[in-house]
C-alpha cells in the first residue's frame, strides 16, 4: 500500500500530465505570461460552469475577499458579520480595510454560520455578511439572502472551500455556491477542490457595476492604462495558472464525486464508532468535501491525532484556535465563552485524508485503524 497523504497533488497530476504539460508549454511558447489568452478563456469557462455573469480572476483567495470588500461603498468602522470558525483570510481582510469584524457562532452539526444568531448581530453599522461555505457545503443562503434584503446588507460568499457545490432554494432553483450573494470569491490554492500549480483566485458577480469596480480596483485603480481613478492593487492570475485551470476545470465535477465517494466510505465505516461523530449535512446544499471533518467525543482529540500519525495516517486540525481568541484579534475585545460552539469545535474536530486518489485499501486501513483506537 502506498503512503497515505492528506492531499495527493502528485497522483492527481499524473492522470492528466500530458494535457497539463502541453497547456503550460503552450504558454511558454507564446510568452504571454500576463493576461494571456488562457486567462480570458478561463474567465469564460468558469462563467459558464458557475452560470454567473462576471468572473474576475485574481492572484489568490485572500485578495479575492479583499478586492470584493474594497469594491463596495464601505467606510472605516462599518461592521461586517462573519464567523470565527474559518481560515484567517476571511477576517484578516475585514480588519485590513479598517472595517470591523462581527462574529456569529456556527452550527455544531454542519460547521456553518448559525442563521438563528444572525439577525441579533445586525446593528445600524452593519453593511455586509460574509458567509463561509466551510469544508465544502453551503451556508443556508436563502435565509441569509432574506435577512440581508430586509436589512439592506451586501452578501459576499467565501467559496474557497466549496467551488462546484450546489445550493437548492425552496422553489427548487439550484445555484452554484458563490453565485447567490452580491459577490462570491474563491481560491485556487493547490489543495482546494479546483487547485492550480501555485497561487490563484477569482471573484464572481452578476452585478455589472460591482464587476466594473472589482476590475478597476484589482488593476491599480485604472480602467484606461496609466489613468488611475482610485487607489487599487495589483492582483492577477498568471497565464500559466489559468492554463492549468482550463484543463482541471473539466475534471472538477469528477474530482468532487471522487471526494464524495471517500466521504461515503468514512460515513459508513465510522458512523457507529462511539468516540466519533460523522459530519452533518447542511440544509439545502450538497457536500463536495473539501475536508472530511469528524467531531471526537469523550476522548483527547490530540492523542487520537498522534495515534493516527504513528500508524502512518496524517490527520489535521481545521482549526485549532478560533479567530476571536487569536492574538492578532485581541483588539476586538472578545473572550473565551463568547462563541461556545466554535470554541468546542476547535477542541474536538479532526480532519481525515481527503483527496481524489485514495484507494479502497487505503480507506479501509484508515477506518480500521480508527476503529482500533483505545484511549
Ligand atoms: C484557502 C482559503 C482562503 C484563502 O485563499 P488563498 O488563496 O490561500 O489566499 C480564504 N478563505 C477560506 C475559507 C479558505 O479556505
Summarize the structure.
With 375 residues, the chain is α/β, with parallel strands linked by helices.
Description of the molecule:
This protein is an alpha/beta fold. It folds into two domains: 9-249, Aspartate Aminotransferase, domain 2; 252-371, Aspartate Aminotransferase, domain 1, CATH 3.90.1150. It contains 13 helices and 14 strands. The protein has a seven-stranded mixed beta sheet, sandwiched between helices. Helix 7 (141-151) links the parallel strand 4 (126-129) and strand 5 (154-158). Helix 3 (37-50) runs parallel beside helix 9, helix 4 (61-70) runs parallel beside helix 5 and helix 10 packs parallel to helix 13. The longest helix has 19 residues, at 252-270. Bound molecules: pyridoxal-5'-phosphate.
The CATH superfamily of the largest domain bears the name: Type I PLP-dependent aspartate aminotransferase-like (Major domain)
- Tell me the number of helical segments per DSSP (H or I, 4 or more residues long): 13
CATH topology of the largest domain: Aspartate Aminotransferase, domain 2
Number of separate strands: 14
Broad shape: globular
CATH class of the largest domain: Alpha Beta
Low-confidence stretches: none
Question: What ligands are attached or bound here?
Answer: pyridoxal-5'-phosphate
Helix coverage percent of residues?
Answer: 25-40%
Structural class: alpha/beta
One letter per element, helices H and strands E, the order comes to: HHHEHEHEHEHEEEEEHEEHHEEHHEH
In the CATH classification, which architecture of the largest domain applies?
Answer: 3-Layer(aba) Sandwich
Quote the distance from N terminus to C terminus.
27 Å
Major beta sheet, specifics?
Answer: 7 strands, mixed
Q: What's the Cα radius of gyration?
A: 21 Å
Amino acid at each position: 500500500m502506498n503512503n497515505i497523504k492528506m492531499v495527493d497533488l502528485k497522483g492527481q497530476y499524473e492522470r492528466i500530465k500530458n494535457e497539463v504539460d502541453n497547456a503550460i508549454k503552450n504558454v511558454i511558447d507564446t510568452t504571454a505570461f500576463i493576461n494571456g489568452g488562457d486567462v480570458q478563456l478561463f474567465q469564460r469557462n468558469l462563467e459558464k460552469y458557475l452560470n454567473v455573469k462576471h468572473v474576475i480572476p485574481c492572484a489568490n483567495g485572500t485578495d479575492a475577499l479583499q478586492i470584493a470588500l474594497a469594491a463596495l461603498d464601505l467606510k472605516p468602522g462599518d461592521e461586517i458579520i462573519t464567523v470565527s470558525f474559518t481560515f484567517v483570510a476571511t477576517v484578516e481582510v475585514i480588519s485590513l480595510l479598517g472595517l470591523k469584524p462581527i462574529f456569529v457562532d456556527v452550527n455544531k452539526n454542519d460547521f456553518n454560520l448559525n442563521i438563528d444568531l444572525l439577525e441579533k448581530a445586525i446593528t445600524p453599522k452593519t453593511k455586509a455578511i460574509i458567509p463561509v461555505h466551510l469544508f465544502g457545503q453551503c451556508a443556508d443562503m436563502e435565509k441569509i439572502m432574506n435577512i440581508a434584503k430586509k436589512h439592506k446588507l451586501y452578501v459576499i460568499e467565501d467559496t474557497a472551500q466549496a467551488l462546484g457545490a450546489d445550493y437548492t432554494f425552496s422553489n427548487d432553483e439550484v445555484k452554484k455556491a458563490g453565485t447567490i450573494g452580491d459577490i462570491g470569491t474563491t481560491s485556487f490554492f493547490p489543495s482546494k477542490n479546483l487547485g492550480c500549480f501555485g497561487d490563484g483566485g477569482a471573484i464572481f458577480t452578476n452585478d455589472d457595476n460591482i464587476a466594473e469596480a472589482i476590475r478597476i480596483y484589482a488593476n491599480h485603480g485604472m480602467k484606461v492604462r496609466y489613468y488611475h481613478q482610485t487607489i487599487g492593487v495589483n492582483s492577477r492570475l498568471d497565464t500559466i495558472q489559468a492554463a492549468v485551470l482550463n484543463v482541471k476545470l473539466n475534471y472538477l465535477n469528477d474530482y468532487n464525486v471522487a471526494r464524495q465517494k471517500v466521504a461515503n466510505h468514512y460515513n459508513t465505516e465510522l458512523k457507529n464508532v462511539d468516540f466519533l461523530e460523522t459530519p452533518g449535512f447542511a440544509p439545502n446544499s450538497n457536500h463536495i468535501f473539501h475536508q472530511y471533518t469528524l467531531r471526537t467525543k469523550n476522548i483527547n482529540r490530540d492523542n487520537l491525532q498522534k495515534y493516527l500519525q504513528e500508524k502512518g495516517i496524517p490527520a489535521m486540525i481545521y482549526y485549532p484556535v478560533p479567530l476571536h481568541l487569536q492574538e492578532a484579534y485581541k483588539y476586538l475585545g472578545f473572550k473565551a465563552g463568547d462563541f461556545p460552539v466554535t470554541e468546542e469545535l476547535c477542541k474536538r474536530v479532526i480532519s481525515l485524508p481527503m483527496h481524489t486518489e485514495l484507494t479502497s485499501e487505503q480507506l479501509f486501513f484508515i477506518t480500521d485503524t480508527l476503529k482500533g483506537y483505545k484511549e
